[in-house]
């Protein structure tokens, strides 16, 4: 790993700078009829958003020499077919859950709508609670993707720095850049940029996505069957994909960071649903 950049606390702080967030007081419950219609809408939208990801083998981690020590060693992983949401979970969906369960409404950045923007200011426990609730009301078996599933799906067959090639292109994903092709100076509504080769939107950029895995500082001993790494430091969970806060280097497809599971909420961190076949 000699020659690769080392992670420092200052680097992580810089990458996530200015993104600390909060939650508002508990949401007022909606009238019962209105609430059940809204819940049905969330169940339907979640089911319709799932897309089939074919089985395959890929090399996970940094193979370009541009990555950090914790993106190594690059290793081969075989991922069974599964399903992944084409979009991140939105505020519209999460707010229905929050109202139905008396949880706090996550804060949105002032000036941005809720609705079709990806939900943010949700920690790993909040994401897990949404998944558990949705499974209860829908009878489905949604879960967070494993980190290997996430990277396999984000790459969608690519082996380059970004899913579309080795050079950053502002028209392909929402980074901190504002340029022709990226008019967004903050988060963008889900699906505002073109999908990758698997038909997935915003896998890199816009908001970070929580994955299921417990944190490890490198890939020594990582599962090679596509499953989540469920041992290790499980008070820290990994985030993938980068966000509108990062410059293009933060959107490299092999980049991984982690956050403190019960406590940390950021205005650049959300999640999406996966489901086994
Ligand atoms: Ca942008």
TrEMBL record:
Pfam families recorded: FGE-sulfatase (PF03781)
UniProt cross-references to InterPro entries, sorted A to Z: CTDL_fold, Sulfatase_Mod_Factor_Kinase, SUMF_dom, SUMF_sf
Sulfatase-modifying factor enzyme-like domain: residues covered: 47-274
A GO term, aspect molecular function: formylglycine-generating oxidase activity
Database matches in Gene3D superfamilies: paralog of FGE (formylglycine-generating enzyme) (3.90.1580.10)
Annotated signal peptide: 1-22
Keywords: Signal
Source domain of life: Bacteria
Keyword Signal: yes
Protein name: Formylglycine-generating enzyme family protein
Originating species: Novosphingobium flavum
